[in-house]
């Protein structure tokens, strides 16, 4: 794609940090120096049953690097492999396939310990209490709830309504029941439920409370760069270690710019961030603050799996405007519906042109997006909307970068 120089404001790039030379050694270091907690081998007793929550295939967390050192540490504390279960924290996603499990954990781990996928609709979920502030009834995976020692793994990254991924998110939504997840996610209508915000964010507060009710013993989280390399690992207390990770994420991915643009070209960051429209939308959400009202967002996302979520699709068909979607979220929240709500909200502010392999029929008729087969066509279309003098930002790692416009000096 060629952007004329006179229109180009620049590329909004994260302040990437290099990956550590030896990820395994970095993870082992974090386990040796836990934040706000004893070491794992000091926490466990030989007779303990241990549950380790890992991310499913929709997240980039390098579980294959994190789980083996955890197992070694548990063995050091006398825990035998047959007393350890790895749980894929699928939330409301489908179960992990055997192929995915091999990729996520590695064959060696699968041969050593039992691995299961969480099912949010399982009949035998365990009720561990109700969050005080927001009244969420917390139902959790039985194997997780009944384990003597509960360990969370994941990556700390920006998240568009929980503020950040990682930490407490490995309990709610990862191993929680569907009703619990719904009750929590309804709060995404709250103005503080947004990317990079923890203070006053009801979704985050509720997740923390759920993790406390679950009695999480230990976490191991990493921060990765856009190449997927481990920059740093954080282990220990589920809140303290997570907050340290969030600080590093801010250093890398919060980017201040001096002005808004008329057009923003955003790529979610390649596969798997753009596997479908449902995932790729995060890139749009992150740039909404830096495009002018009435401007254009060009979303360059392959979307080989199409829209990626039936509820998202159904809501776009069913609800003609934002108010109707908002009412439905309050009345009968179904996961997936929130994406339709966000997309409708975005479309009130900007036009979105999708450059992807998705059939036009869907993109235009259902998701109300303009489409272009190639980026240059999209750019020409955008110029015809906002004029030839339009200023343009380009953001190549849309799903992980959070640009903010510097407050104007009064």
Per DSSP, the total helix count is: 15
What is the average per-residue confidence, as pLDDT, rounded to a whole number?
A: 95
Q: State Rg.
A: 22 Å
Number of strands: 18
Strand order of the largest sheet: 1-17-13-14-15-16
Domain unit count: 2
**What CATH first level of the largest domain would be assigned?**
Alpha Beta
Largest sheet: 6 strands, parallel
User: Runs with pLDDT <50, length 5+?
Assistant: none
Write the CATH architecture name of the largest domain: 3-Layer(aba) Sandwich
- Structural class given helices, strands, pairing? alpha/beta
Give a description of the structure.
- By secondary structure, the protein is an alpha/beta fold.
- The chain has 2 domains: 23-253, LarA, N-terminal domain (Rossmann fold); 258-405, LarA, C-terminal domain (2-enoyl-CoA Hydratase, Chain A, domain 1), CATH 3.90.226.
- It contains 15 helices and 18 strands.
- The strands form 5 sheets. The chain has a 6-stranded parallel beta sheet with strand order 1-17-13-14-15-16, with helices on both faces. Strands 4-3-2-7-10-11 form a 6-stranded mixed beta sheet, sandwiched between helices. It has a two-stranded antiparallel ribbon with strand order 5-6.
- The relative contact order is 0.14.
- The model has no long low-confidence stretch (mean pLDDT 95).
């Amino acid at each position: 794609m060629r952007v004329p120089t006179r229109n180009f404001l620049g590329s909004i790039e994260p302040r990437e940090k290099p990956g550590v030379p030896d990820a395994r050694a970095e993870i082992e270091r974090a386990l040796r120096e836990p934040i706000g907690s004893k070491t794992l081998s000091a926490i466990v007793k030989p007779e303990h049953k241990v549950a380790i929550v890992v991310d499913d295939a929709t997240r980039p967390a390098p579980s294959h690097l994190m789980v083996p050192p955890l197992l070694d540490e548990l063995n050091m504390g006398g825990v035998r492999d047959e007393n350890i279960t790895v749980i894929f924290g699928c939330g409301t996603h489908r179960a992990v396939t055997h192929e995915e499990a091999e990729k996520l954990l590695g064959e060696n781990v699968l041969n050593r310990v039992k691995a299961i996928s969480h099912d949010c609709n399982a009949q035998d979920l365990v009720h561990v209490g109700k969050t005080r502030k927001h009244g969420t009834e917390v139902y959790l995976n039985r194997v997780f709830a009944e384990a003597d020692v509960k360990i969370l793994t994941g990556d700390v990254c920006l998240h568009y309504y929980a503020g950040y991924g990682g930490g407490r998110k490995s309990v709610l939504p990862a191993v929680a029941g569907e009703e619990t997840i719904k009750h929590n996610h309804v709060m995404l209508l709250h103005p503080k439920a947004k990317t990079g915000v923890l203070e006053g964010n009801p979704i985050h507060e509720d997740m923390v409370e759920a993790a406390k009710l679950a009695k999480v013993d230990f976490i191991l989280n990493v921060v990765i760069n856009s190449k997927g390399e481990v920059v740093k690992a954080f282990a220990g207390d589920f809140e303290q270690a997570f907050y340290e990770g969030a600080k590093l994420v801010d250093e890398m991915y919060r980017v201040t710019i001096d002005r808004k643009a008329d057009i923003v070209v955003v790529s979610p960051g390649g596969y798997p961030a753009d596997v479908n429209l449902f995932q790729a939308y995060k890139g749009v959400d992150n740039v909404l603050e830096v495009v002018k009202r009435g401007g254009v967002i060009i979303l360059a996302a392959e979307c080989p799996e199409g829209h990626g979520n039936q509820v998202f699709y159904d809501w776009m068909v069913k609800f003609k405007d934002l108010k109707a979607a908002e009412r439905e979220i309050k009345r009968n929240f179904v996961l997936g519906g929130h994406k339709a709500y966000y997309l409708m909200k975005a479309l009130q502010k900007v036009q979105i042109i999708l450059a992807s392999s998705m059939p036009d029929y869907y993109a235009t008729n259902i998701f109300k997006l303009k489409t272009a087969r190639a980026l240059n066509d999209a750019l020409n279309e955008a110029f015809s909307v906002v004029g030839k003098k339009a200023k343009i930002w380009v953001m190549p790692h849309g799903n992980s970068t959070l640009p903010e416009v510097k407050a104007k000096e009064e």
